[in-house]
Amino acid sequence: MQSSAVPELAHTQTRPIHWVATATAVAGVVALSSVVQPGSATAAQAPGGTHTKSAPAAVAPPSTTGVDFPLQCGPVKAVVAKKATGDLDGDGRPETVAVVHCDSAMGTPPDGVYVLTRSTDSDQPRVVATLVDPEDRLTVSDFSIHAGTVAATLLGYSSDAVPNCCPDTKTPAKWHWNGTAFIRSTPAATHSV
């Protein structure tokens, strides 16, 4: 075997001076990169100068507190069982959808589903639409708002003989704003008993 003129693996043993040299080099690169910055962006702009548009201020969704829901409860009060918020009409201001029923110690009181909004000149929330009328004897479950659509599962009764405690039908429903009213859609063949 022929021996090499250069000692094998001459630099495999690190010494503290190697670490100091490496740390100094890295610190120099970091310091240099913080001083040297790229120039301003030069993207093409439309003729007529630059126009800036500020983002709309965040608007709080309407509260359900103090709202007079169109629900006849007699001597008991109306209870907001569920609520969700979202921009349903695409105007950049959130609406609140509330599931409301009369406070009852027994049975399953029917729900009403109401859309609340605030006018631009008043902070007082108001009911602008009824999606489910309590007179329809429905109970709402699986309630949500997603991408401007209100979705719920409606539990109901196949006949007047079915007791109020025990809904025996289940129907998914969705509502979306078409520019003038909320339109309900129910997927075909989804009504079940």
Description:
This protein has 193 residues and is mostly beta strands. 10% of the residues lie in helices and 31% in strands. It has one helix spanning 16-35; strands at residues 78-86, 95-102, 112-117, 126-132, 139-146, 149-156, 169-177, 182-185. The strands form 2 sheets. Strands 1-2-3-4 form a 4-stranded antiparallel sheet, with no helix packed on it. Strands 5-6-7-8 form a 4-stranded antiparallel sheet, with no helix packed on it. A hairpin with a 2-residue loop joins strand 5 (139-146) and strand 6 (149-156). Residues 41-45 have low confidence and may be disordered.
Shape: elongated
DSSP summary: helix tally? 1
Low-confidence stretches: 41-45
Instruction: Give the overall average pLDDT.
Output: 80
Strand order of the largest sheet: 1-2-3-4
**Helix content estimate:** 10-25%
Cα-based radius of gyration, to the nearest Å: 33 Å
Largest sheet: 4 strands, antiparallel
List the SSEs and their pairings.
Blueprint (H helix, E strand, L loop, with lengths): L15 H20 L42 E9 L8 E8 L9 E6 L8 E7 L6 E8 L2 E8 L12 E9 L4 E4 L8
Antiparallel strand pairs: 1-2, 2-3, 3-4, 5-6, 6-7, 7-8
Q: What would the keywords be for this entry?
A:
four-stranded antiparallel β-sheet; 193 residues; 8 strands; mainly beta
The gist of it:
By secondary structure, the protein is mostly beta strands. Helix content is about 10%, strand content about 30%.
